[in-house]
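Handout, section 3.2

Students often ask what a structure token actually looks like in practice. Rather than define it abstractly, here is a full record for Protein RarD. The first block is the sequence as you would receive it.
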Amino acid sequence: MPDPRPLPDRIDRGGLAQGVGAYFLWGLLPLYFPLLAPAGSVEIIAHRVVWSLVFCLLLLALTGGLADLRAALTHRRTLARLGTAGVLIATNWLVYVYGVLSGHTVDGALGYYINPLVTVALAVAVLGERMRRTQWVALGLGAAAVVVITVGMGRLPWISLVLALTFGLYGLVKNRVGRTVGAVTSLTVETAAMAPLAVAYLAFLADDGRLTLARGGWHAAALVALGVVTAVPLLLFGGAARRLPLSVVGMLQYLSPTLQFLVALLVFGEEMPGARWAGFALVWAALVVLTVDGIRSGRPPRRVAELAAQVVDPQETVNQKSPKETVAPTGTRTS
């Protein structure tokens, strides 16, 4: 398991660059999807599943990881859990892309801001973990934010909630898989589980004359590149997790939704009424409470520790033990 070491006097610059690069790419991802027009959100996700699978298979072949893939495929329980993870992450991707293309990128950013809070709630509800008083305060602030936005905007921020819940459940399922399956191997199996549906949908579009990939040129190249766009940030995160204290990785996670938020406001020109500002302020306050609690407890964010362990060494087997008390968790973005 990665060492939850304290902050050193000097941060590894290479590791920091990789971590910033990973979250920077995830944060700017909303700028990529409009470039794929006229492809709709479902077609985009179908291509993302297919080409991510192709890219991951090539990567495993080049790095000698196919043996790990075969090992994962022989364990029925692991296979079932990774298949479930594939459904969850594909749903997360679909809702996220729909949010961007429908002018709700702000809601997407909110979803990834509140993800750590949802993960804490899932740790209590599903894993039976205990929370400290400050964590209850953070959850209360997060719940108040949802109420304020719902009342003020006249609608439930369902995109935010679905993104946070699906990614929280995704992390929970990956936690059940344990650390015997590396990140690239895991993503390969997850996308393979969804590939039949993706291929069937693309075949339907092709038969109906609506497959935009047939346009060729830049548009086709951009769709195929979705595989690289998906995998590269994950690999950068793996490098950062090897070289940085987990506390630093946990702090970097907020860079991604912050960039999404800025893209929504400054590039897409999405509106921010007073109620939405108030809701975001409550969420930011909750995250400050959660982060300070994690720092004062002297323990790194647990979800970062778990997922970092999965990407540090795809061939590493680590025995996992669940802690008795919840700490401020986060997750590795794959969206």
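Discussion prompt for tutorial groups: The radius of gyration is 19 Å. How would you have guessed this from the sequence alone?
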